[in-house]
Amino acid sequence: MKIIFFDTETSGLNCDSCKIIELAMLTVEDGKIIEDYDKFINIREELPSNITKITGITDDMLKSDGVSEREVAEDVFERLTPETLMIAHNCQFDLSFLYMLLKRHFPDEADEIVSNVFWLDTLTVLKDRKEYPHKLADAVSHYGIEKVNFHRAIDDTKALRNVTIALKNERSDLAEYINIFGYNPKYRVDGVIFPFIEYKKQHFHNWMVRQDRILPRL
To answer: Facing residues of 86 across strands?
Structure first.
C-alpha cells in the first residue's frame, strides 16, 4: 500500500475562507520514502501577521518561492490514487483544506478523489494512548522522537511518520482507526463533514485505554 504522510500550513483556520500556503507530502512504499514533496502556494493574498508569526512563512516567501494553487491541485490529483492511505495529525483539519483546494480546481472529481483513498488521524489514536495534551509535538516528546522544526509542513510530515511508527510498535490496532475521526464532545466537528468518515465523540483519558475499549470499538 502507498502511504502519504501529509501536513498543511494555512492562511487561517476556516477552510471556507482560508487557503493552504504550504503543502508537504511524504510518500512511502514498502517502508521506503519514494518522494519528499514540499511546496509553497502563492495564494495572492496578504497573510495575517499571526500566521507569519506561527509558521515563519512570509508574503515574500510565497511570492518568490510559491507556485500556483492550480499546480498543487494537479499534483494532489495525480498522487491521491485509489486506496492510498493518507495520514495526518488532526486529519479533519488538513483533509478539509485539501478537499477545498481540489474542489476549486476539480469540482467534478474532488468528492471521488477523497472518497477513494483511506484516511488515518494520528490525533485520534493518540487520544486513546496518552493523557492530554495531544499535539504532534507532545507525541514526539512522549515517544522520545528527535525534535523537528514544527509549523513547517515538511518537517511535520517526517515527525508524523516517526510518531506513526511508534504508535504501530506500541500496539497493533492502527488499522481499526482508518476513516474514524474522534472529536471533543464539548464542540462540533469543524470543517467539511465527509460521508466516508465516521465521526465519534472521544473523551480525554489519563491512561492508555484497553484494546477492547479503543474508540473504533465503542
So the answer is: 4, 119
**Residue 153: pLDDT band with limits 50, 70, 90:** confident
- In the prediction, which pLDDT does 152 show? 75
Asked if 208 and 128 count as a contact pair (C-beta separation under 8 A), the reply is: yes
Asked whether 193 and 100 are in contact (CB, 8 A), the reply is no
Nearest of 176, 140, 144, 180 to residue 160 by alpha carbon: 140
- The reported pTM is 0.97
Torsion of CA 41, 55, 166, 189, to 10 degrees: -80
What confidence tier does 150 reach under pLDDT thresholds 50, 70, 90?
low
Q: Are strands 20-29 and 32-40 parallel, antiparallel or unpaired?
A: antiparallel
Radius of gyration of the chain (CA): 17
The answer to whether the beta carbons of residues 182 and 215 sit under 8 Å apart is yes
Domains in the chain (CATH in brackets) are: 3-122+135-178 (3.30.420.10)
